[in-house]
Design a protein that fits this description.
About 40% of the residues lie in helices and about 10% in strands. The chain has 14 helices and eleven strands. It has helices at about 5-15, 30-35, 65-70, 80-90, 160-180, 200-210, 230-235, 245-250, 265-270, 275-290, 305-315, 320-325, 335-345, 350-380; strands spanning about 15-20, 20-25, 120, 155, 190, 220-225, 255-260, 295-300, 315-320, 325, 395. Strand 1 (about 15-20) and strand 2 form a beta hairpin. Helix 5 (about 160-180) crosses helix 6 and helix 13 crosses helix 14 (about 350-380). Bound molecules: iron/sulfur cluster. Iron/sulfur cluster binds near residues 125, 128, 193, 224 and 271.
């Protein structure tokens, strides 16, 4: 029997928080750290030898260093109009910089300032059961970074340490890009994971401190949409203060709401946990109801049940389908390792098992995009990725 995600989250809460610190992954010496530090090095907690911060160039083409590293054509924002930049960014796999389009201070001609988030990873996820092959089948986080156990490869991180480290990294990155004549800034603090909502109190207090210091940061937070009931429970028991989500929603934080499946079988196969579609729906309602701007990212949907799912979601949250992006899945280092262990457990040949998995992911991605496009044209009169997500109002019906 797969693990109950709420029970697992309760277990994790006891190991992920110590005093006013949260346990995060230290990415040095990890496969994920190597995968994600090709353009900008991992970043330390200032004054220490711990490296829990990374960045990721979301849109390689908008970045001269990433374009060179990854062999993509450089899209120079200084040579394009705001409309051209927006249209280009909207079409990309990670349109993240455009999430902030309607925020104060956003300038389309400096969209690149939102393209390099400063990322930390809460070191435990409630879809990860603590075993060597736990978590979503396609998860790109190393097993050791996601099992919630303090020790090697983890570090407890304080709020001021986080902000001081981002201030220091910002200066370094500005200068790294200035050396190649490029105007770059680091504006986005992304709390990823793992499952950040297990440490929502820490995140709220971090934003309070960012506010106290009057820093012009904006935020992204990820959620796997399984913890709405957990937040209720923590508020009831005084672990979180009342209305934690509502209080956090007052800050400029956007939420990447991960849609891990579109029917119960689909979701449970993807995440290896006994979570239900009803949990996803409840969590989504709670987050939107709290006032957050959400950006749903769907992974490995079942194309057969996707149309009915989209209908239902649009009945719950107005225009939700216009906000959905479907993400292609790639087998990064940690993914391959997890799938290899999964194959061995089932007594299957790992290479064949991984190839079959990749084929399914690719097929579901392609078909899923077609289904979504057809649905959007019929229901809303526009195609997939034809509107900027931040311009689509979402509200509970
Ligand atoms: S929800 Fe995210 S962090 Fe958790 S196992 Fe899945 S992909 Fe990994």
């Amino acid at each position: 029997m797969e693990k109950d995600p709420i029970k697992r989250a309760l277990e994790l809460r006891t190991t992920l928080i110590k005093g006013d610190k949260v346990l995060v992954a230290d990415l040095k010496d990890t496969l994920q750290g190597r995968d994600t530090s090709k353009v900008v090095d991992l970043m330390p907690i200032v004054g220490t030898v711990n490296y829990p911060f990374r960045t990721k160039v979301n849109i390689k083409q908008l970045d001269p260093l990433a374009s060179e590293e990854y062999g993509t054509e450089f899209f120079d924002v200084t040579k394009h109009t705001s409309e051209e930049i927006e249209a280009f960014t909207r079409q990309q796999e990670f349109d993240f910089p455009l999430w902030f389009k309607n925020d104060d201070n956003f300038n389309m001609k400096q969209v690149q300032h939102y393209n390099l988030p400063f990322i930390l990873q809460v070191a435990g996820c409630n879809f990860h059961d603590g075993s060597a092959s736990g978590g979503c089948t396609y998860c790109f986080v190393d097993n050791e970074s996601n099992d919630g156990q303090p020790g090697k490869g983890k570090v407890f991180l304080g709020i001021n340490e986080t902000i001081d480290s981002m201030v220091s990294a910002r200066k370094k990155i500005q200068s790294q890009y200035a050396d190649v004549g490029f105007d770059m800034d680091l504006k986005v603090l992304r709390t990823s994971g793992g499952e950040p909502t297990i440490a929502l109190d820490w995140i709220l207090n971090t934003w309070r401190e960012i506010g106290n210091r009057d820093l012009d940061y904006v935020g992204q937070m990820d959620s796997n949409l399984s913890t709405g009931r957990l937040v209720d429970d923590f508020e009831r028991r005084g672990i979180f203060e009342p209305n934690t989500l509502e209080k956090l929603a007052k800050y400029p934080v956007k939420i990447l709401t991960a849609l891990k499946g579109v029917d119960n079988e689909n979701i449970q196969n993807n995440v290896q946990s006994s979570t239900q579609l009803a949990d996803q729906e409840y969590s989504l309602r709670k987050i939107v109801g709290a006032g957050f701007d959400i950006f749903p990212q769907m992974y490995n949907p079942n194309p057969e049940t996707l149309p009915a799912y989209l209908e239902r979601m649009d009945e719950i949250i107005e225009n939700l389908s216009l906000r959905i992006h479907i993400g292609p899945l790639k087998a990064y280092g940690p993914t391959t390792k997890r799938l290899t262990l999964g194959a061995e457990k089932l007594g299957k040949d790992p290479t064949e098992f991984i190839d079959a998995q990749k084929k399914t992911w690719d097929s579901n991605y392609e078909k899923g995009c077609e289904v979504l496009d057809t649905y959007l044209r019929k229901r809303h009169g526009v195609g997939y990725k034809e509107v900027t997500r931040a311009d689509v109002p979402v509200k509970l019906k």
